[in-house]
Design goal:
Blueprint (H helix, E strand, L loop, with lengths): L57 H21 L6 H21 L5 H30 L2 H13 L4 H12 L1 H32 L2
Helix pairs in contact: 1-2, 1-3, 2-3, 2-6, 3-6, 5-6
Length: 206
């Protein structure tokens, strides 16, 4: 049995003598508890980048196509009233395309992106006009169709000389090709201006 130096019988496993209080073995300091590990919050999800305006952007293409079709139709319908309505509808088409795109996607467009969207709208308008001109050139090669055009031209009270000048252009493919670059610039530049204007004005409202 373990005994203290004072002769007292010690309890098994005792650290001190219960009579004189003498330590019976070295006491190791308690190991400090490790500091708590700070929990790292999970990284915030990164929002996907907004698709750039271009022909790869499905929403932009659909909206620009509709705007391009409407601009050509309205220009043709109101152009008989005043020639200035045609350019105004082209500018309005670019503005409308930006407005609808913002409503559909909730994305803000810079002036450059708005101009790009309007330009795409103008490209579709140019394609439609080019197809119409090609169809008209083919129709005017038919004598019966030419007589119908002359009758309708007279009904609107327009000059026969203007019709002959128009027919001269459409009967010569070189003349048609020569007008294409001018039409492309006109039909794309005005909607691009409307798109840039729309992006600028609509961004100020927010």
């Amino acid at each position: 049995m373990d005994r203290c130096t004072c002769g007292t019988v010690l309890v098994e496993g005792a650290l001190f003598c219960h009579k004189c209080g003498k330590p019976q073995r070295d006491i190791l300091p308690a190991e400090p508890e490790p500091p708590p590990v700070a929990e790292v919050p999970p990284p915030l999800p990164i929002a996907p980048a907004a698709p750039r305006i271009g022909f790869h952007n499905g929403a932009a293409v659909r909206i620009a196509l509709v705007a391009g079709i409407l601009s050509i139709i309205l220009s043709a319908l109101t152009g008989q009233i005043a020639a200035a309505f045609g350019p105004l509808w082209l500018i309005a088409a670019g503005f409308w395309a930006v407005f609808v795109y913002r409503r559909r996607t909730g994305e803000r467009l810079t002036a450059m992106s708005g101009a790009h969207l309007g330009w795409i709208c103008g490209v579709f308008g140019f394609i439609i006009v080019a197809l119409m001109m090609a169809a008209l050139a083919m129709a005017l090669s038919n004598a019966s169709a030419l007589d119908t055009v002359r009758d309708q031209w007279r009904q609107y009270g327009k000059s026969e000389a203007d019709l002959n000048q128009l027919l001269t252009v459409f009967r010569n493919p070189v003349n048609i090709l020569a007008t294409m670059p001018v039409l492309f610039v006109l039909l794309t530049l005005l909607p691009a201006f409307g798109g840039a204007l729309g992006a600028k004005l609509l961004d100020r409202r927010h």
